[in-house]
Amino acid sequence: MFEIKKRDGLARIGEFTTPSGTVETPAIMPVINPNFELISTEKLKEEFDIQVLITNSYIIYQSEELKEEALEEGIHSMLDFSGPIMTDSGTFQSHVYGDVVVEPEEILSFQKKIGSDISTILDEFTEPDETELDAEKKMEKTVQRAKKAKEEFAGKEGHTAFPIQGSVYPHLRERCGELMKELDGDFYPIGGVVPLMEDYKFSELVKVIVSSKKGLGAKGPVHLFGAGHPMIYSLAVLLGCDLFDSSSYAKYAKRGDLMYPEGTKNLSDLEHLGCECPVCTSHTTEELKDLSEDKREELLAEHNLWISRKEMEKVKQSIVEGTLWELVERRVRGHPELLKTLKVLDDRYEYLEKFEPRSRKRALFDTGSETYWRPAIKRIQDWIMSEYEPPADGPTILFEMDQDKKPYNRHLREELGSMEDHELNYLVETPIGPVPLEMDEIYPVAQSIFSSDKMPEKLLTRYKERKDIDNMIRWEGKKTLDSLSQPHQEGISFDEMKIKTTADYQFCKEAGKVLTDGTLEFVKNNKGRIKNVMLDGEHILSVRHYDGFFTLKKPGAQILWAKLSSPKMRIEVTDESAKFNSEGKNVFAKFVTEMSGELRPGDEAIVVTQDDEIAATARVFLTKEEVQAFKRGLAARTREGFET
Ligand code: GUN
Ligand code: ZN
Question: Which of 236, 415, 532, 613 has CB 3.0 to 4.6 Å from 241, enough for a Cys bridge?
Fold first, then answer.
């Protein structure tokens, strides 16, 4: 019922199907108060293009009149909205008022009876200041209720939301996520987070989201319960949240607050609105201040919804562009407590890296010092520090360079003259640390713009500590070459270095060695850039012009397959699927029987049968974990089928 259409890391544009229609995620679900219509549902649909609403079944249930109406005509007719409607269960009232007077079974079956598209079990709200023991009991009780709901309603119309609870204890959140995942539900809110948002405890919030997601795996959609402020949308979507309910637009309006992606401002402090929404372009601050209280509340609520909607659009466009990290880095500057969350993410690098593409279509932009913590940068740094094998036997020459000399190798080749006469390794000081010169055209080394040319010094120190680096010489012009003792006539060529190192980084260790084991030839463009790589006369690799990585041609895939002991680029499919894939058709999650855990979204992979017969090369869309979680949708895009 949930399918990923586009993605950037954990963030995703998805399609969630309900009995009343399909919702494109990430999306906002405005909260409708059944007692009080602030903005009509018709207006929400027509003007605000709202696809899905949420209302509270407990409020309806408590009022004889509303209850009767809902049971008689159904929730859609009652709210005059034919699209998907989610209902909540009364748990939040227990957080606000301390108690709810309804049996869990009763409120769930009531939601089903009134035709809710997504009913919510009566979960136990875990407060942030709860003891671990209490939080654990409530978490377990919530899971028990989900289990009962599953037994009673599985296979019937409408979804049931299984909230993740566990207070601020990461292991409880993760455990709750795992238990809910085992129940194989179809909608997962992260609950108990409203107090964290109200108190600006965003670091705690991020920890809660990440540990819940870890437990849940790729299951979705994931809904962040009560997250209605646009200032956290980008961050929450970056971490894999898909839906946001919001009563904030109304609550804030009631107290005269205008929401912006950068924060909140009270109308009484405003002389300039600084907003282009229909409300702000047709009113001045004075006019808004002079309105009746009801009218003002309505208009501020509309402003708040416009802003929320616009921000979500921006988030979605950033997913399409692959620029969501940049948007997040800008947004978190709205409040120091938000900015702190980037450190929390840095501490969770190993988890985030699993979803991080090796390359993106657009250049990486530096937005400030925290950019250096991005998984895209840490990954290549880590690899250079611990996996890279300098291709030549001789010393390493270290170059100091400015970014405007990118790609560095073309610049240096002129200075160095022939790079084939010496057994040398070349290292460039770049803003992301020391980078082997032969890696300088791959993402994000070439495809990035930093505000400073300065290299983090500690990274060079770390590099020098490597065991295989014993001799490093700083480049001081041509005389550096003359000072080297023995020119070596059979040094490895720079082009070969490039193929070897790129293949090792992109595919796996040893890949570079087997792909260069023979006579190499190159097809180059008019700027001297390698386009195609031939080994012993066969076209094995093409170079992607936008990120410097390879696409695998059939002979290249065959070499990797025949010569590597444990290739980490394997997607195993059923025989039936293999037949289609060998004809060039895409690989679907349903037919994938096994997949390498090392494959990241966007990676080049080899599609094989269970007997290890090569069927195709393909570009990965879902990770192993995601393929296991989704029984539908695209797993990889076939590049080339290997028809026999
Ligand atoms: N609304 C805001 N937080 C929560 C929560 O934790 N559970 C439910 N059911 N509703 C909420
Ligand atoms: Zn406005």
Answer: 236
